[in-house]
Design goal:
The structure holds two protein chains of two kinds. In chain A, 36% of the residues lie in helices and 27% in strands. By secondary structure, chain A is an alpha/beta fold. Chain A is globular, with a radius of gyration of 18 Å. By secondary structure, chain B is α+β, with helices and mostly antiparallel strands. In chain B, strand 13 and strand 14 form a beta hairpin. In chain B, helix 10 (277-305) runs parallel beside helix 13 (372-398) and helix 15 (415-450) crosses helix 24 (708-743). Classes of the chains: A alpha/beta, B alpha+beta. The A-B interface holds A 45, 49, 52, 54-55, 75, 78-79, 81-82, 87, 89, 91, 93-98, 102, 105-107, 109-111, 154 and B 1, 4, 7-8, 11-12, 15, 312-313, 315-323, 326, 402-403, 406-407, 409. Chain A: It comes from Pedobacter hartonius. Chain A: Pfam families: ABC_tran (PF00005). Chain A: Keywords: ATP-binding, Nucleotide-binding, Translocase, Transport.
Chain lengths: 232, 790
């Protein structure tokens, strides 16, 4: 599904130049659940942002289902993103002024889904995420775990081909964290491709494959046999 | 999408109640001020534009040439031959009418008698102005002799009803006029207003001098309705030498000027319109826009200050798929929602303030809710305001890069955003400081003119119009008034001492040349007691005195008249004036007869018992004024029972001369104060926001040992710095503008540095008060709360 070649990304400020990605090569197959790990500053979040078309690399190639994405302009990128990708963040990033229902509905609005269809899709996912009785609440009224479930629901409501998760359990205690990981696994089993950045090897153990980054390089790759066998 | 954005907008307003309140009320006050000014502008702009084809109505004006062949004066009055001549001679004249000025005459109806403003006009006036008739024929109502058209409220006043056709009112206790028409009351913004309108024939029958065709007495208004295809500049070229073509040697040139433009463009220099009221109107337009901008700046500042809070929303939306255009429209929408709320509040404010405003300015403004133009204007102002106020926040907020926002929770304070906000605050306060300085300079200038020596006892004089029996029984009146002890001196004169009403040229004196005949002298006629009653200061010679029989043919002249005539020893010199050879018996110091803003014109005071119309009395200071007035009123009523007694204090008449400047003073005071208030409201918002943002920093500093005053200094200084910069910018600008404004007055004060310093100190004081309130609150807060907050 994803093929990344020689990706390079440099951050420049007036004084320092930091190389975040230094010739990354990697691929993700359809239906895979990939974890990206590495120490702070290794470039894993940058890589995720590039994959999510939120950031532009200096050079390299990024093919998504054989389409080269790096040559697209902002508008095309934005369109591609909203049609194919869903995001889950460490700090949930829900809009405080919108209710749970409205937060989940938002990406559908941007995808110009008609109102009745929207209502159906949102209700369906709310039920699936087990947050039906929270749909009229505002984010601040929910626990962290519930907020992340809403965020996951929002990421999935458009039925994206790829879900990008950036330390989804970073702000949660372990029981809530496990809940979210199980949810992601379940989604993955239903066919959604997931790429997750994480610090936690416990979380990574839920994935099929773990990619280790350091100083902008892929230094190792490990297949998680217990899960991969299922895939095969 | 729209619904969702609308929801977000409302929820944001509700969530940040303080800042929303500051935003909405600041904007509401700004909008209200702007709308009131615009109402005033539209009131003035529509002056005299009520007739159906007002663009084709022209007034005949007269340029009077002076001694050097230049046009010395442009006057609105013509001789009584002009209108009939034009109508008969020129094909481009569709219709023409002569009008008198509205004058107060005694009118009696069935219920009562009042002095009400009456105007005389040719019947053609009905075709020119097209009054709205309630009763009567709108073409023929003035065609019958001794007829009269009354306004609705005049009819009510005299008969208690508007259905008064064919009933009679008695004019000046002499002549019955039959009512042939009742018209709607005239709108307040017309130059020619009256309570009742009489045909020209009544004017001619009542006043013999009106009857005689005359080319030289410029006492009447001539209005024309001309062919819309006519070329006015060609017409003006062709009628320029009208007087010469008709064999008259007078150096006057008639020309046409659009009637509805006269109100705003009525100042003439060298016979060319150089503006007039339009300048004040432009000033008010500027003020309206300025105040609204100040309010918009508040809005922008608050919105960008809150940008950190909104940044997350922008980041998420962009990640999920919002386009920049969509976000821009969302933020614009938000500002429009706020503006609409503000507009509602503004209309309420206006309704509350208009009565006060109208009373202060002596005008009649109101919001006409049924007017389409009013609504269109309001919608336009709201749209423009919303877009301006929302534009910067919209473009600024929507430009955020989602990665930066979402990754680094703290969106750094961009150098750009801070500077722009500072620039806006500085601009806002500069404007406010300029307004404060302007206000004080205007006030000082008014005081300066007010304090100019008037030259006569303005505070001790009262006057009564010499009408009815008072004319024939003047000597009786005089002796009875003096007997009563209410007055210490009495004088009959041709006109009030508080107005320039008559002038003449053609005078000759020893050593005068042919050119000197073009010099215009103000003239008035009095009887014995001129100097004694008015308190004018005599420099040479003496007052008129009954001891000298020849004084019936004597004149007094002003000091500037003496200078103009270039007389070394004026007393005893013979002057040919008004067709009489008169002897100068005295010279008095110039006094303010006309405008206190201009230097006095040369004045000749003649002696005449016949040319009189005003009785001026010097109150006896031994008794209280109210007692004196009661005594005078009683005597006047006894001698002249048919007329209501109307005693006027001359100092009130004098005060009217300062009215237009007073209006300017009131408006600039009021709106200058508003500008400061709105600016401070914005500063308050920014300070409270900054205090909120720095809660943690303040907490840490406090824990480390900072005192309350340390912290207040920390929080206040950055704001005061901006106000300081604003003052530095504003002072030279204000100084330049106001020095320029002052130069337009012949007599003017100068921009006073003490005032400027006081204005600066005052502004800093107000700003300090505003900011320190917030700073104190933040500094006094319990540091533990602040630290827990994160």
């Amino acid at each position: 599904m994803i093929k990344i070649e020689n990706l390079e990304k440099v951050y420049k400020t007036e004084e320092i130049e930091t190389t975040a990605l230094n010739g990354i090569n990697m691929h993700v197959k359809t239906g895979e659940f990939v974890s990206i790990m590495g120490p702070s500053g290794c470039g894993k979040s940058t890589l995720l942002n590039v994959m999510g078309l939120l950031d532009k690399p200096e050079s390299g190639s990024y093919k998504f289902l054989e389409t080269e994405l790096l040559s697209m302009n902002d508008k095309q990128r934005s369109n591609f993103r909203k049609q194919n990708m869903g995001f889950v963040f460490q700090n949930f990033n829900l809009i405080d002024e919108l209710t749970v229902f409205e937060n989940i509905e938002l990406p559908l609005i941007y995808n110009k889904v008609p109102a009745t269809e929207r209502k159906r899709l949102v209700n369906e996912i709310i039920e699936r995420m087990n947050i039906v009785n929270r749909s009229g609440h505002f984010p601040q009224q929910l626990s962290g775990g519930q907020q992340q479930r809403v965020a996951v629901a929002r990421a999935l409501v458009t039925k994206p081909k790829l879900v990008l998760a950036d330390e989804p359990t970073g702000n949660l205690d372990s029981s809530h964290g496990n809940e979210v990981m199980e949810l992601l696994c379940e989604l993955n089993e239903q066919g959604t491709t997931i790429v997750m950045v994480t610090h936690s090897s416990h979380d990574a153990s839920f994935s099929n494959r773990i990619i280790n980054l350091k100083d902008g390089h892929v230094i190792s790759e490990k297949i998680n046999k217990s899960r991969t066998e299922e895939l095969i | 999408m729209f619904k969702l954005n609308f929801k977000i907008a409302l929820r944001n307003i509700w969530k940040n109640k303080t800042s929303s309140l500051i935003n909405i009320s600041g904007l509401a006050i700004g909008l209200a001020a702007c709308l009131v000014l615009l109402l005033y502008v539209s009131y003035e702009w529509n002056f005299d534009k009520h007739a159906k084809d007002d663009v084709n109505i022209y007034q005949v004006m007269m340029n009077h040439k002076g001694a050097n062949g230049q046009i010395a004066e442009t006057g609105p009055s013509t001789a009584n031959v002009i209108a009939p001549l034009f109508k008969q001679k020129y094909s481009w004249v569709k219709t023409a009418a002569r009008l008198s000025w509205a004058m107060p005459f005694l009118v009696s109806g069935e219920l009562n008698s009042y002095k009400k403003m009456g105007e005389f006009a040719d019947p053609e006036i009905l075709d020119i102005f097209g009054y709205t008739f309630i009763y009567g024929n709108k073409h023929t109502a003035l065609s019958t002799p001794n007829s009269v058209i009354v306004t609705e409220s005049t009819a009510r006043l005299f008969f208690g009803t508007t259905d008064v056709m064919n009933r009679s009112i008695r004019f000046q206790n002499q002549l019955d006029l039959k009512i042939t028409g009742v018209i709607k009351d005239l709108p307040p913004n017309v130059s020619r207003s009256f309570d009742y309108l009489m045909p020209w024939s009544v004017y001619e029958s009542q006043f013999s001098w009106v009857r005689e065709p005359n080319w030289e007495s410029y006492s009447y208004t001539t209005l024309l309705k001309i062919d819309p295809r006519a070329n006015v500049s060609e017409i003006n070229a062709s009628i320029k030498d009208l007087y010469q073509k008709n064999g008259l040697k007078l150096k006057v040139e008639p020309f046409l000027f659009q009637y509805s433009s006269l109100h705003l463009y009525g100042n003439f220099v060298n016979g060319i319109s150089t503006g007039g009221g339009i300048e004040q109107l432009r000033l008010f337009m500027g003020l309206a826009v300025g105040i609204l901008l100040i309010a918009c700046v508040n809005f922008m500042n608050m919105a960008t200050a809150k940008s950190e809070k909104r940044a997350k929303e922008v980041g998420i939306k962009k990640t999920i798929g919002a386009s920049r255009a969509g976000l821009i429209s969302q933020f614009l929408m938000e500002s429009l929602v706020l503006t609409v709320l503000s507009a509602v509040m503004a209309v309420v404010l206006i309704e509350m303030c208009l009565p006060l405003f109208n009373r202060l300015l002596a005008i009649e403004l109101n919001i006409n809710y049924s007017s389409v133009a009013m609504w269109l204007g309001l919608v336009a102002v709201v749209l423009v305001t919303g877009l301006i106020a929302g534009s910067y926040p919209a473009f600024y907020l929507s430009s955020f890069n989602p990665v930066q926002i979402l990754r680094k929770r703290n969106l750094g304070r961009g150098i750009f955003s801070i500077t722009l906000r500072q620039v806006l605050v500085v601009g806002q306060f500069s404007f406010a400081v300029i307004l404060i300085i302007a206000t004080t300079v205007i006030y000082q200038q008014i005081q300066y003119i007010k304090n100019r020596p008037v030259g006569y006892n303005v505070n001790e004089l009262v006057e009564v119009e010499q009408e009815g029996e008072l004319y024939g029984k003047y000597e009786l009146l005089k002796s009875r008034l003096l007997e009563s002890g209410a007055v210490s001196s009495v004088l009959s004169s041709s006109s009030t001492i508080s107005k320039e009403l008559s002038s003449s040229s053609g005078g000759e004196w020893p050593g005068s040349s042919e050119d000197d005949k073009l010099i215009r002298f103000n003239t008035m006629a009095t009887t014995y007691g001129f100097v004694k009653t008015t308190g004018v200061k005599l420099i040479y010679g003496r007052d008129f005195s009954p001891k000298f029989a020849s004084d019936t043919n004597a004149i007094l002249i002003s000091h500037s008249a003496m200078n103009v005539m270039n007389l070394k020893n004026p007393i005893g010199q013979i002057v040919n004036h008004h067709g009489y050879k008169s002897t100068i018996v005295g010279v008095f110091e110039d006094f303010i007869l006309g405008s206190p803003f201009e230097s006095e014109k040369p004045l000749i005071v003649g002696f005449s018992r016949e040319w009189s119309g005003m009785v001026t009395m010097k109150l006896n200071p031994a008794h209280p004024a109210s007692e004196n007035i009661t005594a005078i009123a009683k005597i006047v009523k006894e001698i002249n029972p048919a007329y209501p007694v109307n005693i006027t204090f001359v100092n009130q008449l004098y005060a009217q001369k300062l009215q237009s400047q007073k209006v300017l003073g009131i408006l600039s005071n009021f709106f200058g104060g508003l500008a400061i208030f709105i600016s401070c409201l914005g500063l308050f918002g920014l300070a409270s926001y900054s205090a909120e943002q720095r809660t943690k920093e303040i907490g840490v500093r406090k824990v480390l040992g900072a005192s309350v005053s340390n912290l207040m200094g920390l929080l206040s200084f950055s704001f005061l710095k901006m106000v300081g910069v604003a003052i530095v910018i504003a002072i030279p600008v204000a100084n330049y503008i106001m020095s320029d404004w002052l130069k337009s007055f012949e007599f003017h004060t100068s921009v006073n540095w003490v005032i400027i310093l006081l204005a600066a100190a005052g502004t800093i004081g107000i700003a300090l008060f505003t900011v320190s309130f917030q700073a104190y609150k933040a500094a006094k807060a319990n540091p533990v709360d602040a630290l827990k907050y994160e």
